[in-house]
């Protein structure tokens, strides 16, 4: 099964993708995680992306398309994958369509998770990242833990620069301007299933699974 999890930053795409990935046994591909790992590893990509991400801006399309091409061509994507954070522009959506055709993998479900901006700001305030591996966790996931569940680093949690309130507001503005129109691109081309992202993690997950099963 191939899935695009679409929605504003902080709407819960990452949390839902992790659960779906383990339930459906397909990889979770988060372009934000790939970039944060590159920043942590201080690679050429990481050095380029860091400042752009800290400002809350989008990394250029050609870089992101290159990353996705490489990732989707890996053998673990053969039976499906969950995209989280890609596509974020119409140019990326078009490039993804071309790539899926090349890979003979043209059927993909678009799940659009929604929440209002106030709820999103509230949720992002409750997120922390690991400064060693860059993975994101909710405060609930790391409560009482002093080691990162992903890489084992000690006392490494911090509030991401781009999760500071003024940057979140900018990211939401960019979402409404550049990313939301991707839904219009998909309308008429692919089935877009909208799921209300307000509710418990389990409730939202159940709604997504139901939507996927009835697809
Ligand atoms: P995320 O963790 O998905 O919110 O992504 C964090 C940041 O990485 C974004 O604010 C962008 O700066 C960058 N980023 C991630 N995915 C993309 C993408 N598909 N296109 C452009 N920039 C991206």
Architecture overview:
The chain has 215 residues and is of the alpha/beta class. It has a single domain (2-213), classed as Rossmann fold, CATH 3.40.50.300. It has helices at residues 13-24, 31-40, 44-55, 61-72, 90-102, 117-124, 139-142, 165-179, 181-186, 201-213, and strands at residues 2-6, 28-30, 81-84, 109-114, 127-130, 136-138, 157-158, 192-196. Strand 5 and strand 6 (136-138) form a beta hairpin. The protein is globular. The mean pLDDT is 94. The protein binds adenosine monophosphate (AMP). Residues 9, 31-32, 35, 52-53, 56-59, 64, 85-86, 88, 92, 162, 171 line the site of adenosine monophosphate.
In short:
This protein has 215 residues and is of the alpha/beta class.
Tell me which oligomeric state these chains represent: single chain
CATH architecture: 3-Layer(aba) Sandwich
Strand content: 5-15%
Mean pLDDT: 94
Low-confidence stretches: none
